[in-house]
Amino acid sequence: MSDKEAVIELVKRLPPDVSFHQIVQEIEFIAAIREGFEEIDQGKGISIAAVEKMIDSWTTK
To answer: Which of 16, 26, 44, 48 gets the most CB atoms within 10 Å of its CB?
Structure first.
């Protein structure tokens, strides 16, 4: 699905009283997710094990 098609589908699912600001937030959220998936597909992602180590380093002293 193209970016344009994804936005159209997103807007169709939003409630009729949604504000422009909320629409922009939703589009930015979906864009970030799609970019993340593209990075993972390109091998640029971080493994779960690496993320767990990062979280451990943040929470231990």
So the answer is: 26
